[in-house]
Design goal:
The complex is a heterodimer of chains A (90) and B (146). Chain A has helices at 28-38, 43-46; strands at residues 2-6, 20-24, 47-48, 51-52, 56-60, 63-64, 80-85, 88-89. With 90 residues, chain A is of the alpha+beta class. Chain B is α/β, with parallel strands linked by helices and 146 residues long. In chain B, strands 3-2-5-6-7-8 form a six-stranded mixed beta sheet. The longest helix of chain B has 14 residues, at 6-19. The chains are: A alpha+beta (90), B alpha/beta (146). Strand 8 of chain A pairs antiparallel with strand 4 (53-54) of chain B, so a sheet runs across the interface.
């Protein structure tokens, strides 16, 4: 499955400035591995200690992946994947 | 330097006073690349806390999709501190993720929900480095020419 992944400003240093890149995978986990293969370093900004980072949001077709099984969330052809850092602070 | 319309400045202060003692948060969007904060969007603090703020993840996506559709970006990201000074906390610095934005901090610690001056300060937060900048409040020219 190849899908388009929307990359937030702060992670575009990994994508050569691209706002969106293509990636392949049948689950979010394999999609992120494919992203990492083409944009080394990006995985560490999304995942920490084997789980999604608390303050990074990933959406598949507008649904927060935390409600879709997290890293196990299935990915299908044509899905829209969006990465957005949380807007949060103290 | 942050240039901001008086009406927008006043609306951010009013939001912070209204939500005190919880932290208020939101953004001011503007045309991409313009550095002009034009469209205020008050957000709900999903944390509902006097010491933390966070945009709800579903509302966050809706906000960004709306900005993308309008060729906008977040020019200002603002939130309030309700018991401490208007300076980014360690958490604010760690979580700052819009390198192009002006981070506005308003402190309501002195007058709370009541009338009275607030601290209103602006910063750049890039790679963990905080740089304070001047805030210039401009009359809202759009309303006088409308």
């Amino acid at each position: 499955m190849t899908v388009e992944v929307r990359i937030p400003t702060i992670l575009r240093t990994y994508t050569g400035g691209e706002k969106a890149v293509s990636a392949a995978g049948s689950s979010l986990s394999s999609l992120i591995d494919d992203l990492e293969a083409n944009h080394p370093g990006i995985k560490g900004r999304l995942i920490e200690a084997g789980d999604l980072r608390r303050f990074v949001n990933i959406y598949v077709n507008d649904e927060d992946v935390r409600f879709l099984g997290g890293l196990e969330a299935p990915i299908s052809d044509g899905d829209q994947v969006v990465v957005l850092p949380a807007v949060a602070g103290g | 330097m942050l240039s901001i319309y008086q009406a927008t400045y006043d609306a951010i202060v009013a939001h912070a006073k209204r939500d005190h003692p919880d932290e208020a948060c939101g953004i001011v969007a503007g045309p991409e690349g313009s550095d002009r904060p034009e469209r205020l969007v008050e957000m709900v603090n999903a944390a509902g806390s006097p010491t933390f703020y966070e945009f709800d993840s579903t509302e966050l996506l809706a906000l960004y999709k709306e900005m993308w559709a309008r060729d906008e970006e977040p020019v200002v990201v603002y939130h309030s501190h309700t018991a401490t000074e208007a300076y980014p906390s360690r958490t604010d610095i760690e979580l700052a993720s819009e390198p192009g934005a002006h981070y506005v901090l308003v402190s309501t610690r002195e007058h709370g929900n009541n009338e009275g001056p607030v601290e209103f300060r602006s910063y750049r937060i890039i790679d963990g480095e905080v740089t304070e900048e001047d805030v210039v409040v401009a009359p809202d020219l759009r309303s006088s020419t409308a």
